[in-house]
């Protein structure tokens, strides 16, 4: 470190400017930040919507559902492996909308079929399985 810089730091420290700044900041308005786990990074609760329509396919972690404007891709992960969701079966999916430059897709939180509900994520988007 340059000797002048070292001297300046020592002078500022000796005058207590750092302590005064800390005391002034302590009286400021508190800031609250909601921190979500990294595993929930791909889920935005603010963009949640309920999608309802017949299944066109369910494989490889993707559920495809036909809506009035076309078929949408919904990420469900491995949670539906072994589930009996066949083509034509009507489902309701609570999902978050995601989009990039080329495409749009959804990330599922809940999948409802008949009287069954499969919960994949909690209300913050954290996977439960």
Structural domain count? 2
The proportion of residues in beta strands is 35-45%
CATH class of the largest domain: Mainly Beta
Rounded radius of gyration (Å):
25 Å
Assign an overall shape: globular
What number is the mean pLDDT?
77
The end-to-end span amounts to 52 Å
Helix content: 10-25%
Largest sheet: 5 strands, mixed, barrel
Unreliable segments of 5+ consecutive residues:
1-19
Number of helices: 2
Q: Would you write up a description of this structure?
A:
The chain has 129 residues and is of the alpha+beta class. The protein folds into two domains: 1-32, no CATH class; 39-119, Beta Barrel (OB fold (Dihydrolipoamide Acetyltransferase, E2P)). It contains two helices and six strands. A five-stranded mixed barrel has the order 1-2-3-5-4. It is globular.
Short structural summary:
About 20% of the residues lie in helices and about 35% in strands.
SSE arrangement:
Elements: H1 3-15, H2 17-26, E1 48-59, E2 62-67, E3 70-75, E4 90-99, E5 104-113, E6 116-119
Parallel strand pairs: 3-5
Antiparallel strand pairs: 1-2, 1-4, 2-3, 4-5, 5-6
């Amino acid at each position: 470190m340059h000797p002048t810089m070292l001297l300046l730091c020592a002078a500022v420290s000796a005058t207590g400017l750092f302590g005064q700044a800390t005391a002034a900041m302590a009286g400021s308005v508190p800031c609250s930040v909601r921190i979500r786990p990294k595993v929930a990074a791909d889920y935005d609760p603010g963009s949640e919507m309920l999608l309802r329509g017949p299944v066109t396919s369910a494989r490889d972690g993707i559920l495809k559902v036909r809506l009035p404007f076309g078929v949408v891709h919904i990420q469900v992960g491995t949670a539906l492996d072994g589930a009996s969701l066949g083509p034509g079966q009507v489902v309701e999916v609570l999902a978050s909308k995601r989009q990039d430059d080329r495409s749009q897709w959804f990330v599922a939180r809940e999948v409802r079929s008949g009287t069954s509900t499969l919960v994949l994520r909690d209300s913050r988007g954290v996977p439960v399985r």
